[in-house]
Design goal:
about 290 residues; alpha+beta; Helix Hairpins; SH3 type barrels; 5-stranded antiparallel sheet; 3-stranded antiparallel sheet
Length: about 290
């Protein structure tokens, strides 16, 4: 009997507590003061986000202006390097502004940032000991940029990956191949790079003629044809016929070279082959048939 009374009292106390909590909750949400605080908080958050966008836009324009001023300076960076540094600074600014915005929004939500920052510092220190690869990626990224190893827009080969550099970030480098694949490579793994865009390229074309062809005649007409290739924007200098490269049992090989703009040797080679075929056919000079 006594136990039933105790259970009944406990149920009554729980019911009263739930009713009291529900009443306070309804009173809180029905209060105009609560909705005013929520509205003011939302307005502040929107203003913070708007301020962040303005800061990013102003900083981006400032960086672009500094890059343009640097290009006018006698000690200016190359256009490649300036473009890459601009992208890197833009990434750093975005990360920094986003971090500050998150802290300001958390402050508006009523969270105390002091203990949060102190805890984040301890966690960051612990992560730093275990994130040596991340530190290595960041340091390597800075050295890549300041040593001008490669820049955005360059065609490079990193290990087995070849393509055009789309972005050099704080942690990774992104390159796109000519077939559309995008490779994302951690900077710390970049140990050897081949850059195809820093200097002019050399296109080498070998033409195999029949053994009985008149070599002097072929060289004369090819030089005459190449002299007219002056309007090709890919060429630095017109193609040059070096002469006979090899002499086989049934064929002769002429070598043609052409200095062209960086990474344009394949396109130039195609144009040279087309011109060679047209010239040799026009003057009845026989090309060797495959064995």
């Amino acid at each position: 009997m006594l136990s039933n009374i105790l259970v009944q009292e406990a149920l009554t106390e729980n019911t009263n507590a739930i009713h009291h909590f529900y009443s306070q909750l309804v009173e809180t949400f029905m209060s105009p003061k609560t909705w005013n605080q929520i509205l003011i908080g939302l307005i502040k958050i929107l203003l913070i986000l708007l301020l962040g966008k303005i800061v990013k836009a102003v900083t981006r324009r400032l960086v672009d202006r500094l890059v343009r001023e640097r290009e006018k300076n006698p000690l200016r960076f190359s256009q490649r390097r300036a473009k890459t540094l601009g992208k890197l600074v833009g990434n750093v600014v975005n990360y920094t502004v986003n971090f500050i915005l998150i802290l300001m929004i958390l402050s508006q939500l009523g969270l105390h940032l002091g203990p949060l920052l102190a805890g984040a510092g301890v966690v960051g220190l612990a992560i730093g000991f275990g994130a040596q690869s991340l530190v290595k990626d960041v340091i390597t990224g800075f050295f890549i940029i300041f040593e001008d190893q490669f820049a955005v827009g360059d065609t490079v080969q990193i290990g087995s990956y070849k393509g055009t550099v789309e972005e050099i970030g704080l942690r990774v480098t992104r390159i796109a191949s000519w077939t559309g694949e995008v490779y994302i490579i951690p900077n710390g793994l970049i140990t050897q790079v081949t850059n195809y865009s820093m200097r002019n390229s050399l296109s080498v074309v070998d033409i195999v003629l029949s053994y009985h062809s008149d070599v002097d005649k072929a060289i004369f007409y090819l030089k005459e044809a190449f002299a007219e290739m002056t309007d090709n924007q890919l060429l630095v200098a017109r193609p040059e016929v070096l002469g006979m490269q090899t002499m086989g049992m049934s064929d002769l090989t002429l070598r043609i070279v052409a200095e062209c703009k960086p990474n344009q040797e394949e396109q130039v080679k195609r144009e040279i082959l087309a011109q060679v075929k047209k010239t040799l056919d026009q003057h009845k000079i026989e090309i060797a048939m495959p064995a």
